[in-house]
Structures are given as C-alpha cells and as structure tokens.
Design brief:
Blueprint: H1 5-24, H2 33-46, E1 50-55, E2 59-65, E3 73-79, H3 106-122, E4 129-135, H4 143-149, H5 152-155, E5 160-167, E6 175-176, E7 180-183, E8 185-194, E9 198-199, H6 209-226, E10 234-243, E11 251-252, E12 255-264, H7 267-287, E13 291-297, E14 303-305, H8 307-321, E15 326-327, H9 339-345, E16 348-354, H10 373-389
Parallel strand pairs: 3-4, 3-5, 5-16, 6-15
Antiparallel strand pairs: 1-2, 2-4, 6-16, 7-14, 8-12, 8-13, 9-11, 10-12
Helix pairs in contact: 1-3, 1-10, 2-3, 3-10, 6-7, 8-10
Length: 394
C-alpha cells in the first residue's frame, strides 16, 4: 500500500480535531457513551464492513476487509478511557469535566486508530482483514480482559494483536520496543492490622497496631532487597496509611490500614513475591500480638511482546521512521498495561510512539502531542501492509 504525504498530513489534521473533542469530554472506565458514540459515528461514516458496539459495555470493534482475497486477520487496539484527576494545562481544549482528564493519551490513541480506519476503508490494497478494537477501561478496569471474556478474539477470528502507546521523552517521529517482558505486572494490596487499642500512657496494656504497621512496612522492603534476584526487577511501594485520630493523640487505635502496589516483570517471581508478602505480613503482625487481614487485589499481568512479532513491529516502524529512529532495546518499565491480557492469548507486540518533550503520563500537566498523530497512523498502515501483504512465512 502506498499513501501520499499530503493526504496523510490532511488526515492528521482531521484526527487532531477528533482528538481534541475527545479530550474535552473525558469519560472513565466502562462508562464511555460519548466517546463510543463518536467512534461509532466515524467508523460508520468511513464504510467499515462490520461494526459491533457494546462489548465490555462501551467497547467498539470494526472490521475492514482487504480486496486481495483471503489472508491473515490481525487486530489493532486502542484504549479510550481517561483518568479521575483534574487537568492543569490551561489549554483552549482542556477537559470540561471536573476531576476527569486524558492524562495518558488515550484520546490520541483513539484518534490515530480512527484515522487508520479511514485510510484502510478507502484503500483496501491488502489480503485478509483488519480488526480495529476500541477498548474501554484500561485505567484499572481491565477492559481488555472483559473484551476477551466476551469473545472478541474468537468472534472476529483474530490471529495477531498489536498495540501502540505514546511515550513522553521519546522524540516525535521515533519509536521504541523490546522483545519479551516490556511492562510489569502490577498487584495491589490493603492490609488491615487489628490490635488492641488503649491509652497511650499504658502501651503495655495494648497491642499497638501502629508499631506493628511500622515494622511491617520496613520488613516488606526486604522482599525486593533480600529475597529476589537483583537482575529480576521487583518494586514494592506502600502508598497508603490510615489509622488513629489526630484529635485524640493519647489514644492507641485498635486497628490501622496500609496499602500499596507490587510490580514484577516475571510471572514466577510474581507468585513468589505474593507468597513471601503474605508470610511477612502474617508473622510481623503476630509478633506484635496483632492480626493482619490481607485484601489482595490482583492486577494486570506482565506485558510480554512475542519476540518474532516485536521484530516485525520494529521493521514496520523502521519503514516509516528510519531504522535510526527505532530503539529495539528500550528499557522495560514498571508501569502496567492491560493489553497484556491480549498478548497472553495471541502473539503480538506493543510499541512506544514518541510524544516529545511533554509532561509525564498521569501528570495533570500532560497533553498528547498532536505532532505524533501522523507518525502513529503511518506506523499502523505500515504494519498492516507488512502483515497482510508480506510473505506468508513472515
């Protein structure tokens, strides 16, 4: 497939308008009626062969058939949801919804995949079919898992899956990827430590859960520093602490709660860390005469790029950006991504798209860089061309 630069530039300008509209009207998790309606409207306007709505409540899937006959079926996935935080950009198209903003660039991801759909629907010079997945609830809702549970992979005969995410700090027009583990698995926990409250002047008559909690926080750090291979990354962060009453500083509380996250890059390590975590929490609480109740909240799995598909994705990126602008050994990140569920079920790869010198993801000052749109669309089109017009053995 060939696409002339002026037409793609004009398309990127159009996609910028879609992106900014989505940006002004952010929605959370599975509750994306406006975003899903805009996506469905555009896909219908483009003339996609099949459009299915309502997967995972507000997910949208479109199918575009090539005009070269049978071939592979590949899926391109975009996430659509925003974050529950207040925007601090002062941009003319800033969020109009209180305590909601697109602080991770899903508005840009959605606009780029819509632009790709428009080009593919107009130019079907490929064999097989492209399935476009517009997914809700990436930010903590595991929307990818829900779509899989509702049969998205089998229903559309998807053989390979590909994702793309913007990366602040990576130059506009550049890409980055790595084979194997690319993003961490992330679990969360809340521990309730039940002790025995009492007067602070007589601590020997109590079982102080605050002291137990303080010792527990320190002891948990030893999991990463003393029980795991230093070349196998593990991050355990206690981020939440609740207990006692500032209005009664002479009272030892009966219970406190602590919570946080654990990030790992290896499935076996993840299981080991959870087991060790439970042992440390239970034994530490017991040593202080208290009892610990663990609310373990399993998070997203490790995002693992299929080595062969990561190589093909890098090749597609190099075809449009030049090999010198594609880093194939980008460091793994301890952030998490629910595209991992799809990569557990089908071979594929996630690639980073440069967002330039912007604020970090999940920062109130962040904004997706519209200059990245044309590069993201060119990558998607290059990938489709490679996978659906390339040699059968690739």
């Amino acid at each position: 497939m060939t696409f002339d630069a002026p037409s793609l530039s004009a398309l990127a300008d159009e996609a910028k308008d879609w992106r900014r509209t989505i940006h002004q009207h952010p929605e959370l998790l599975f509750d994306l009626p406006k975003t899903a309606a805009l996506v469905t409207e555009k896909l219908t306007e483009f003339g996609c062969d099949e459009i299915v709505t309502g997967l995972a409540k507000t997910g949208v899937v479109a199918v575009i058939n090539g005009n070269k006959g049978p071939g592979r079926t590949i899926a391109l996935r975009s996430d659509m949801d925003a974050l529950p935080m207040s925007e601090q950009t002062n941009l003319p198209y800033a969020s109009k919804v209180e305590n909601m903003m697109h602080a991770c660039g899903h508005d840009g991801h959605t606009a780029m995949l819509l632009a790709t759909a428009k080009q593919l629907a107009e130019n079907r010079d490929f064999a097989g079919k492209v399935v476009l997945i517009f997914q809700p609830a990436e930010e903590g809702g595991a929307g990818a898992r829900v779509m899989i549970e509702e049969g998205v992979l089998e229903r559309f005969g998807i053989e390979e899956v590909y994702g793309m995410h913007n990366q602040p700090g990576l130059d506009i027009g550049s890409f980055a990827i790595r084979s194997g583990p690319m993003m961490a698995g992330g679990d969360r926990f809340v521990i309730t430590i039940n002790g025995k409250g009492g007067h602070a002047a007589y601590p020997h008559l109590s079982h102080d859960p605050v002291l137990a909690g303080a010792q527990m926080i320190v002891a948990l750090q030893a999991i990463a520093s003393r029980f795991t291979n230093p070349f196998d990354p593990v991050v355990l962060s206690v981020t939440y602490l609740e207990g006692g009453n500032a209005g009664a500083l002479n009272v030892i509380p009966a219970a406190i709660r602590i919570g946080g996250t654990i990030r790992t890059m290896n499935a076996d390590t993840r299981k080991m860390v959870e087991g060790r975590f439970r042992e440390v929490v239970s034994s530490t609480a017991k040593s202080f005469g208290s009892e610990a109740v663990i609310d373990w909240r399993p998070g997203y799995p490790v995002t693992v790029n299929d080595p062969a598909k990561a190589k093909l994705a890098a090749k597609a990126a190099a075809a449009v950006a030049g090999a010198e602008n594609v880093d194939t050994d980008w460091p793994a990140t301890m952030g998490s991504e629910d595209f991992s569920y799809m990569l557990e079920k089908r071979p594929g790869a996630l690639i980073w798209l440069g967002n330039g010198d912007s604020a970090d993801l999940h920062n109130p000052a962040y904004d997706f860089n519209d200059g990245a749109i044309v590069h993201g669309v060119r990558y998607w089109l290059s990938l489709v061309d490679q996978r659906l017009n390339g040699a059968a053995g690739e």
